[in-house]
Design goal:
The chain has 132 residues and is an alpha+beta fold. Helices cover 21% and strands 32% of the residues.
C-alpha cells in the first residue's frame, strides 16, 4: 500500500509504504542509488503505534501523572500517556486509553490484562486500532 503525503510549505512529498513481508522491507530500507528519482531517496522506518483500551475501570478513579497509581502502571506494565475516555456528553466513561513502550509489553497486556484500583481487580485490555 502506498500513501503520498505532501508538505505544502517545503513542497516535498513523502510516500508511506506498507509491505507484506520482511524481505520487501529490507529491500526498501537498503541504500538507494544517488540518482534515484533525480534527487535521491531517503528511506526511514517508523515505529508502530501501540495503543490499548483498558475496559471496566471505575469512573471515580482519578488519572493524574503525579499519582502513585500512574507511576505503578508505568513501571509494571510499560504504559504511558494514560487518559480517560469521555462520552459524547463529556462524562467519564469506564474505559482508559494508553500507549505501550514496547511490543513485548503490548502482547503481555493483551494476553493477561492489567491490575488496577485499590482492590487490584484484573481488567481486560483491547488493542486500540486506528487508521492513520
Amino acid at each position: 500500500m502506498i500513501r503520498p503525503v505532501s508538505n505544502k510549505d517545503s513542497s516535498t512529498t513523502k510516500l508511506i509504504l506498507r509491505v507484506k513481508d520482511y524481505q520487501d522491507y529490507k529491500s526498501l530500507i537498503s541504500k538507494w542509488p544517488l540518482d534515484s528519482f533525480k534527487l535521491g531517496v531517503k528511506a526511514e522506518s517508523s515505529h508502530p503505534k501501540l495503543k490499548v483500551i483498558i475496559l471496566n475501570v471505575d469512573r471515580k478513579l482519578k488519572i493524574d501523572e503525579k499519582s502513585i497509581f500512574f507511576k505503578k502502571i508505568h513501571e509494571d506494565c510499560g504504559l504511558y500517556s494514560l487518559k480517560r475516555i469521555y462520552n459524547y456528553k463529556n462524562q467519564p466513561c469506564n474505559k482508559l486509553s494508553a500507549k505501550c513502550k514496547s511490543i513485548k509489553d503490548f502482547i503481555y497486556i493483551l494476553k493477561n490484562g492489567i491490575l488496577i484500583g485499590e482492590n487490584e481487580q484484573r481488567h481486560d485490555v483491547l488493542p486500540h486500532i486506528i487508521n492513520h
